[in-house]
């Protein structure tokens, strides 16, 4: 039999439907792979019984001749930011350790309704705050990739580092991620997989632990554009429980996939050629232009003049919203409580948050509280929101000249764990190419392009008009077909 863990979403779904193998066989194979890859620390909690129960349900439905869902028989990893009924949900933070929701997030419920099963809850940067998956209370996630000739542990990216590591290591065919300022796209680029952040509002935020509510968006991470299109179709849809949810029909992105880009224009933003970007990244960008031109697209130059202000604006807006969202963790209603003898309510708040939050979370709360405080609100937060509007307007004007934008996903390839911990600002710069699309709420995707001289993956980013996930996926498919990216990490775990 085919090694089932080498298959992606489409091949598993079609194989189960066609009777080539059972959903239980798939779940058993991936459960075993997850157990064998404990050294990656990709999972905080494993749920093999959930995967098997979902598989048995699919097998029974097939035997009864019932119609199967678009994710039928596919076991996935669930980022531990999504509430899962009766299964610990922590956001990788000590303050939520042991919390078992009595409800299911909308996105995860849609996936279970589509026939998917859960292999476990995936590790991440604490409260999704980080770019290297080193801020988790439950320990670092290690990328399955290594530099050629080195045994140094490499970053899988963040915050969705558990998701990217699991998919790249073939211990999950796909995983959910969330993207606030690049947290799907950057880890996808670091590990040689695909990941798409849809238009803000495409996927419900209900039941997802909040970081920055005006930016957070769920999306799929998988090994191919087709698999992302399938999974996104299962995740998306209007949700009356989420006030920001888009009341729009969900297109059949998989059925409409088309890599013929004749008549399409691809914009190349001149401002994305930044100092400090690796030459290998710039070379892959040039190669990406050639691939899209080969697919029939016309390459045009565009300008996004406020790009240089996007990152500083993001690191005002996102921490400000985080400061507000994380105020709910006070030791009163749920989560951990630190109550020293003889103290009052304010002391309990302080002790609980001091013990429960990690350093990066505290840093962002402090920044956010500062920029929202009297005397600084207009100087920082109001100005950042004005910049955000200008960034969005830049994209609107660019899309008058092109259909999709091509850019690097990250300025560098993956880096060794621990190499940037002493310099938060350098770490924040990892998101420099990803943040503008997040501020504008646009669909954006990372697709693997090539590997650098160290044998590490490099990704290319595609950004589309609002609601045009199809255009992004089509351009991604064109790159995928021409790149022929088949590199895999050597199994060391």
- Major beta sheet, strand line-up: 4-6-5-10-11-9-7-8
Detail the poorly predicted runs: none
Helical region count? 16
By helix and strand content, what is the structural category?
alpha/beta
- Helix residue percentage: 25-40%
Gap between N and C termini: 24 Å
Mean pLDDT: 96
Broad CATH class of one domain: Alpha Beta
The CATH topology of one domain is Amidase signature (AS) enzymes
CATH superfamily of one domain: Amidase signature (AS) domain
- Percent of residues in beta strands? 5-15%
Radius of gyration, CA atoms, in whole angstroms: 21 Å
Number of strands: 11
Order of helices and strands: HHEHEHEHEHEEHHEHEHHHHEHHEEH
CATH architecture of one domain: Alpha-Beta Complex
Shape by Cα distribution: globular
Describe the sheet with the most strands. Answer: 8 strands, mixed
Please give the structural blueprint:
Layout: H1 9-18, H2 23-36, E1 43-46, H3 48-63, E2 75-79, H4 106-113, E3 117-122, H5 161-168, E4 174-179, H6 185-191, E5 194-197, E6 217-222, H7 225-235, H8 253-256, E7 265-269, H9 279-294, E8 298-302, H10 307-325, H11 345-356, H12 359-372, H13 377-398, E9 404-408, H14 424-428, H15 435-440, E10 444-451, E11 457-464, H16 469-483
Parallel strand pairs: 2-3, 7-8, 7-9
Antiparallel strand pairs: 1-3, 4-6, 5-6, 5-10, 9-11, 10-11
Helix pairs in contact: 2-3, 5-6, 7-16, 10-12, 10-13
């Amino acid at each position: 039999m085919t090694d089932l863990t080498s298959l992606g979403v489409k091949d598993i779904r079609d194989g189960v439907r066609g009777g080539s193998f059972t959903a239980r066989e798939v779940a058993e194979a991936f459960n075993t792979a997850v157990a064998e890859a404990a050294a990656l620390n990709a999972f905080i909690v494993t749920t093999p019984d959930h995967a098997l129960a979902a598989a048995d349900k699919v097998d029974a439905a097939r035997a009864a001749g019932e119609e199967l869902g678009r994710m039928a028989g596919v076991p996935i990893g669930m980022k531990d930011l999504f509430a899962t009924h009766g299964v610990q949900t922590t956001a990788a933070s000590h303050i939520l350790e042991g919390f078992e929701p009595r409800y299911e997030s909308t996105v995860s419920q849609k996936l279970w309704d589509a026939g998917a099963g859960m292999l476990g809850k995936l590790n991440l940067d604490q409260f999704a705050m980080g770019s290297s998956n080193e801020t988790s209370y439950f320990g670092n996630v290690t990328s399955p990739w290594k530099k050629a000739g080195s045994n140094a542990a490499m970053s899988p990216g963040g915050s969705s580092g558990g998701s990217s590591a699991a998919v790249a290591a073939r211990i999950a065919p796909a995983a959910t991620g969330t993207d606030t300022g690049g947290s799907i796209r950057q880890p996808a680029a670091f590990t040689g997989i695909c990941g798409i952040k849809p238009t803000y509002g495409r996927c419900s935020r209900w039941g997802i632990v909040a970081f920055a509510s005006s930016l957070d968006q769920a999306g799929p991470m998988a090994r191919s554009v087709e698999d992302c299109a399938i999974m996104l179709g299962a995740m998306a849809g209007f949700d009356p429980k989420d006030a920001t949810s888009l009341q729009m029909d969900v297109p059949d992105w998989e059925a409409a996939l088309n890599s013929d880009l004749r008549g399409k224009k691809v914009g190349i933003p001149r401002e994305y050629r930044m100092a400090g970007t690796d030459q290998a990244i710039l070379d892959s960008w040039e190669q990406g232009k050639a691939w899209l031109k080969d697919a029939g697209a016309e390459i045009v130059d565009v300008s996004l003049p406020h790009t240089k202000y996007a990152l500083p604006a993001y690191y005002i807006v996102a921490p400000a919203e985080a400061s507000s969202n994380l105020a709910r963790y006070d030791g009163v209603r749920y989560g951990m409580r630190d109550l020293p003898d003889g103290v009052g309510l304010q002391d309990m708040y302080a002790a609980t948050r001091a013990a429960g939050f990690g350093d990066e979370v505290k840093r962002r709360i402090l920044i956010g509280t500062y920029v929202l405080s009297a005397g600084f609100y207009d100087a920082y937060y109001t100005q950042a929101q004005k910049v955000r509007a200008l960034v969005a307007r830049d994209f609107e004007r660019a899309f008058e000249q092109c259909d999709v934008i091509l850019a690097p996903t990250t300025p560098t390839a993956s880096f060794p764990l621990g190499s940037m911990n002493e310099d938060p600002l350098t770490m924040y710069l990892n998101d420099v190419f990803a943040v503008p699309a997040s501020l504008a709420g646009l669909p954006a995707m990372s697709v693997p392009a090539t590997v650098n001289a160290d044998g590490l993956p490099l990704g290319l980013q595609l950004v589309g008009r609002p609601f045009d996930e199809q255009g992004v996926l089509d351009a991604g498919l064109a790159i995928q077909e021409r790149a022929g990216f088949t590199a895999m990490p050597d199994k060391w775990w």
